[in-house]
Amino acid sequence: MDLLEQIDRSKLPQHVAFIMDGNGRWAKKRGQIRLFGHNNGVKAVKEILNAAGNLGIKYVTVYAFSTENWSRPADEVSGIMNLLSRAIDDEIESMMKNGIRVSIIGEMERLPQKLREKVSNVIEMTKNNDKLDFVVALSYSGRWDIVEATKKIARDCADGKISPDDINSDLISKYLSTANIPDPELMIRTSGESRISNFLLYQLAYSELYFTDVLWPDFNKEELYKALISYQNRERRFGKTSEQVKK
To answer: Any catalytic annotation for residue 69?
Structure first.
């Protein structure tokens, strides 16, 4: 039985998040500069979106560029920004054809002006697509997300729009950049690292975590299937006992 046949389509996560790690190491192994790895990483994103869409997964979030990534060498940062810009140009037609709706979470104001304009344009162009929501975490960090949500809550409390007694986990979720997006049931990180690196800190509270040694440019649909099979073989208890879950 091949990997795809082992997947129970009635038990798929509706939201899968990815930390796409290992582009630089993949390039270095081939004697290339880091941007060569990032470029091939874009190809992996395209394959994963196609595979997820074909399976019926509704949300895919990728950690494309973290707040901390701004501290990388200037030429690499500039190269990544240019790569993102080209990717939008190259893939917008495919996204429209495949019903992919794009949204961005992160500090958009830190992006170069031309990239901000392209990002805004692709969000507008794809807003009515409804097959798969593609969420790109760009200039994003989980702590930034929580801090910004806290500021908004504080302002609304000060303005009398909400009371401190109204604050609970559901309300906080509505103030995060991922409001109206379900929390990921599965988070996948490539390249052998076993940490979440300031990614969706609030939203990953009950996500299943899957770590693989595969470098991101080599992460293909078969690797996605392996992660989904692992996910489906786990028991999601949310603090309950196994006996309670099975009732």
So the answer is: yes
CA dihedral 200, 203, 206, 212 (to 10 degrees): -30
Q: Does the pLDDT value for residue 245 go beyond 80? A: no
- pTM (2 decimals)? 0.94
Tell me whether residue 3 is in a domain. Answer: no
Which of the following is catalytic: 50, 69, 129, 220? Answer: 69
The CATH number linked to 81 is 3.40.1180.10
Residue 131 counted as domain residue: yes
Q: pLDDT tens for residues 143-160?
A: 999 999 999 999 999 999
Active site residue 218: no
Catalytic residue among 2, 8, 21, 54: 21
The answer to whether position 146 is within a domain reads no
Q: How many domains does the chain have?
A: 1
- Digit-coded pLDDT (tens) for 164-203: 999 999 999 999 999 999 999 999 999 999 999 999 999 9
Task: Find the domain containing 53 and state its range.
Answer: 13-141+183-233
- Sign of the dihedral defined by the CA atoms of residues 173, 149, 153, 134, in that order: negative
pLDDT for residue 238 is more than 60:
no
Q: Is residue 111 part of a domain?
A: yes
Give me the sheet containing 186-189, strands edge to edge: 100-105, 132-140, 59-66, 15-19, 186-189, 208-211
